[in-house]
Write a structure and sequence with these properties.
InterPro entries: DUF6686. This protein is α+β, with helices and mostly antiparallel strands. Helices cover 27% and strands 26% of the residues. The chain has a four-stranded antiparallel sheet. A two-stranded antiparallel sheet has the order 5-6.
């Protein structure tokens, strides 16, 4: 049995570490990934370099709302995310973004403009 340590938490995700097994556990929406330190570094690097604008344009006529593909080593499994999910995943992974202002869509608050 492992004493999981919480590294970071967001609205839809949780990044945990098990010191006994030296395994990271990433829980995000309905996904659960067990990753070694190396696998986590590779995943973070991939997430950091995803160009969401490119994928949104590439699949603009798709019937699916989620248009950003994250490939897996399993050939018949692809993780699909939307722009807000990829941004939240970057926050969960600790990926540094340029300093910028939030847009109205990124604020999870009922805003009434008078």
């Amino acid at each position: 049995m492992c004493q999981l340590k919480i590294i970071k938490r967001t609205t839809n995700g949780l990044l945990l570490f098990c010191p006994n097994a030296k395994i990271f556990q990433l829980s995000f929406n309905n996904l659960l990934l067990n990753l070694t330190s190396y696998e986590l570094d590779v995943f973070i690097d991939y997430i950091k370099n995803v160009d969401e604008d490119y994928w949104e344009k590439e699949y603009e006529n798709s019937i699916y709302e989620k248009r950003i593909p994250i490939p897996t080593t399993q050939k018949n499994l692809m993780i699909m995310l939307d722009v807000f999910e990829i941004k939240e995943l970057r926050i969960l992974m600790g990926v540094k973004n340029k300093n910028r202002f939030l847009t109205l869509n990124e604020i999870d608050y009922k805003l009434v403009l008078n």
